[in-house]
Specification:
Elements (H helix, E strand, L loop, with lengths): L5 E5 L4 E7 L6 E4 L6 H10 L4 E5 L11 H8 L2 E5 L9 E3 L4 E4 L3 E7 L8 E5 L2 E3 L19 H10 L9 E3 L10 E2 H7 L8 H9 L9 H8 L9
Parallel strand pairs: 3-4, 4-5, 5-6, 10-11
Antiparallel strand pairs: 1-2, 2-3, 7-8, 8-9, 9-10, 11-12
């Protein structure tokens, strides 16, 4: 039985949020929720008759504030975060290879993919990869702060993500070009930053990007390390 994630978008930060639901409706998980869309996300959960049991973060975000803490308080869901991201209020500190179980028979596989940040994680569920900022459609996340490393990101993508079944659907954490989903096979062959580049070539490319500092970084990072419960936005 094919079960598709619900993909929701925040236009201000170009962030995707995902809701995953068990086919029998017995449980649900949300990935990378955005604080300003708390009401929207709760409305989706209520409309579909879902019981939210897990709130997942792919990393500590620098461009928006999470609603993880508020969702946990409203629903009783567990907050689940990468153990290397410094988010101590979350009760579940994830490690590479963990399995998160929800609903009657669902599970999410946890894949540690350092590079965008030192603690970044991707999540695999029913042939769907939620790749955060590690792998974007035709791109990848920046690697110049939060313990980021272009060399580590290259290894994470080529040695872990690109070894998945090529039919695996890639659901990115962000998109700035109107793209919503891809596949591992397409990204292996066509990704503008990673395909057909050596590790050294990729490191050189990323070092030359000179990207601007995220506008909300000084607010978002401290807030997200507290599951979004203390911020001034």
């Amino acid at each position: 039985m094919q079960v598709n994630p619900i993909q929701l978008f925040d236009a201000e930060s170009s962030t995707y949020t995902y809701i995953l639901s068990a086919p029998d409706g017995s449980g649900a998980a949300i990935i990378d929720p955005v604080d300003r869309h708390l009401a929207r996300d709760m409305a989706h959960i209520a409309r579909l008759g879902l019981q939210l049991t897990h709130v997942l973060e792919t990393h500590a975000h620098a461009d928006h504030v999470t609603s993880a803490g508020r969702l946990r308080a409203m629903t009783g869901a567990k907050a689940c975060v990468p153990s290397g991201c410094g988010i101590p209020p979350a009760e579940v500190q994830l490690e590479d290879g963990d399995l998160l179980r929800f609903g009657a028979r669902e599970h999410i596989a946890v894949i540690h993919t350092p590079g965008h940040t030192a603690g970044s994680m991707c999540y695999l569920w029913r042939g769907n990869l939620f790749s955060g900022d590690t792998l974007l459609v035709d791109g990848c996340g920046r690697t110049d702060f939060q313990g980021g490393s272009a060399a580590d990101l290259y290894d994470s993508v080529t040695r872990k993500l690109f070894t998945l079944d090529e039919r695996t659907r890639v659901w990115p954490g962000h998109d700035y070009q109107g793209q919503s989903v891809s596949t591992i096979g397409w990204e292996k062959r066509h990704n503008a930053r990673l395909a057909h580049r050596s590790r050294d070539e990729f490191v050189t490319l990323m070092a030359a990007l000179e990207l601007p500092r995220p506008r909300l970084m000084d607010v978002a990072l401290p807030a997200n390390r507290k599951l979004g419960l203390a911020h001034g936005i």
